[in-house]
What we know:
GO terms for molecular function: single-stranded DNA 3'-5' DNA exonuclease activity; single-stranded DNA binding. This protein is of the alpha+beta class. Helices cover 20% and strands 40% of the residues. It has 11 helices and 21 strands. The strands form 3 sheets. Strands 1, 2, 3, 4, 5, 6, 7 and 8 form an 8-stranded mixed sheet that branches.
Amino acid sequence: MAGVQKVRLNNLNINIKNALIIGIIIAKNSPRIIGNKKKNGDSRGVMSFTLRDSDVDTINVDVWGSEYFVITFYERFLVGDVVEISSPKICIKSGENETFRPQVSSPFYLSLNEGSSDVSIFSGDTFGAYLPLLHIPSKASAGYCGLAEVMKFTERSDNIYVDLLVVVKSVQPAKTIKTKAGVDMSVRGVEIVDNTTPASLTLDIFDLDTIQRAEEWRALESVLFIADARVAWRGRVRVQAGARSVVTHQPHTSDAEALRLYIRNQAGGGEAAAWAAWSGERACAASVAQIRDRLAAGAPFCASLHALLTHLNLDDLVTATDINLEELRVRFADHTGELTARLPVKVLEETLGLSAEQMKTMLAEDRSAIRWRVLLEQCSAKLAVTPPRIIVLSLRRASPADPIPLY
C-alpha cells in the first residue's frame, strides 16, 4: 500500500503518521453510544478491541464514528480475525483511560476514526503465523488464582479482579436481562471448575462476541485462561468477564493441558467421587450434629446424611428474581438437629424426574403436589461441604438399608 509504513507493535512511536499494523484480535468490548455528542444528527459511538502481533506484544485500539459505523464495525470484525490497520493515530496511554481496558504490553494505544483510518481482513502470506497467537494468555499464566481462594472472598464494595485457569463444566443458554437503567442486555452463564476445589463457580459473560464464541466450548474439554475476571456477588460469589477481561480459549500452556486431563479423570467417577478424592475420604454416614461439628473445622469434606427433608419450596423456581437460578434452599432434620443446604436445580431435576422448565410451567397446585414425593420423607442425601456452604450432590428417598448414625 503506497505511502504507508509497516510497523510492528514493539517499534511504534507517536511520530509515525502512516503506519500499517497487522495483528490478530484477541478481545473486544461492546459498543457504547454517546448520546450527548451529535454530528449531522447521528449519535457518536465508540468500541475497542485488543490486538496482538507476537508472543509478547499487545495493544488496545479505540474505534470512533457514527453509531451505525461503530456497530457495523463491531459485528464485522471478530475475535480470531487477523486484520491490517492503516493510518491509525498513535496515542500515549493515560492511567484513567486504562482502568477498564485489558492490560497490554504497549505504552501506546491506537485511535481509529471513521473516514481517516482503515481496517480490513488480512490475507497475506504470513496469515497463518498469527493464528497461534490467539491461544497465548494475555498475562503470565503462572500467576492465576484458584477457585478455592475466590470462594473465600467476602463481599466488598470495591472491584476485585483475578486471573483464572479453569475448565468449562457446562455452558448455559444465553438470556436477556434488564439493567437498572431499563436496557436489555444479553448474558450467558458458564459453569467453571479447577483443581483447587471440586466446587464449581459461575462465569457471567455479557459481550455478544464472547457469548457466541461460548457455543464452541465443550464441557470438560475446553480450558479457559481468563485475565482480569471481576469477582461479583449475587447471592453467592461468582465471576464476570468484563471490559478488562481477556478470555483465552484452549491456551497453549502445559498447565492448561494438565488441568484438562485432571478434570477429565476426576469426572470419570462422578461428582460425589471427586469430592471424596478431594477430602481424602469417602462419603461416610453422618448425623446433622456431626456435620455441623466438622463445619467448624473449616476444611472441605463430603458426607452421607439420612434425615427428614423438612423444607423444599418449588415456587422459588418461579418467583426468584435471578433468572439464572441455580440452587434452592432446603432443610434437613434428624434426632440431633437441623441443617440448611443448597440443592442445585440439576439435582432437583434428577430427584423428581422433571426438568426445571416443566416445573415452572405447572399449575401452582401441581407444583406443590410433586414436592411431597420427598418432602417430610426420610431421605438419603450426599453432601459436599466447603465451609460455610453445604451442597446436595444427590437426593433420594431413604431405604431400610441406609445407615442412621446414633450421634
